[in-house]
Amino acid sequence: MGFQKKRVLVIDNNHAFLMQMCILLRKMGFRVTPAEDNAEVQKLLSLQSVDLVLMNMHVSTQGGMNALKHLKGNKETSMIPVVVMSSNGRAETIRDCLEYGASAFISKPIDINNLNHTLQECIFGKKHSERKYLRIPFSGKVTLSHKKHVSELSSETLSERGIYLVTHKPLPVGSSVNSEFSLGAGINIKQKGSVIYRTGLFELESELPPGMAVEFKKDIEGSFMAINEYITYSLKKDITIYRENSFV
């Protein structure tokens, strides 16, 4: 199974916010292209394809509205989903954004879980969300047991409901496994799961190393919440403009 990261074009003329958002999205597993103004947006869109546009609309919304109308009115870019972020969450602002073609509106401060859910839904669709759970790069050691065989593997990514393990000999899809790994600070996770896909050595389209994805099947002793808290903390720890689980 090939896997390619989706590309998000982020538009904001606030350089600090733009940089922080790019850091966050890259850690969430997206490719990111930053842009600070409309002219730069048009140039970038003529050079590369993107899967979604994430636009920060400031309190003075006229410029942002014009940019949104231009994107949705241009036949070359009209099919790209646009998500608008703004601290101006008035009903008329949200209504205008949706009427001009925005796929979704996110009020600031931004909740990381809501941001992920919105991006996944806009890219993949409500019925076909492929990566609906938060995930991060995770270089840890995982003890994996399958039938009577126990092995120690390295991990590549961790999500709230699964983990990707690096191995040149992935188990068949559907194999039942038990996994155990540490999140640090004395937090150990034990999970039952099954292999849901595998990536071979010669799958050139995949951005993942050879290995297999294990989906967790059961919330054992609150492990789902512990993993979510760990992922959320890991995502926001390098973001300087955040408040608890959100940032402006």
User: Secondary-structure element order, as H and E?
Assistant: EHEHEHEHEEHEEEEEEEHEE
The CATH fourth-level homologous superfamily of the largest domain: Response regulator
Question: How confident is the prediction overall: mean pLDDT?
Answer: 85
Helix content: 25-40%
Remind me, CATH topology of the largest domain? Rossmann fold
Number of helices: 6
Largest sheet: 6 strands, antiparallel, barrel
Shape: elongated
Query: β content, as a range?
Result: 25-35%
* Unreliable runs: none
Class from secondary-structure proportions: alpha+beta
Number of domains: 2
The CATH architecture name of the largest domain reads: 3-Layer(aba) Sandwich
| Broad CATH class of the largest domain | Alpha Beta
Q: Indicate the multimeric state.
A: single chain
Strand order of the largest sheet: 8-9-10-13-12-11
Walk me through this protein's architecture.
The structure is a single chain. This protein is of the alpha+beta class and 248 residues long. The chain has 2 domains: 7-129, Response regulator (Rossmann fold, 3-Layer(aba) Sandwich); 135-236, predicted glycosyltransferase like domains (Thrombin, subunit H, Beta Barrel), CATH 2.40.10. The protein has 6 helices and 15 strands. A 6-stranded antiparallel β-barrel has the order 8-9-10-13-12-11. The longest helix is centred in the last third of the chain and has 14 residues, at 223-236.
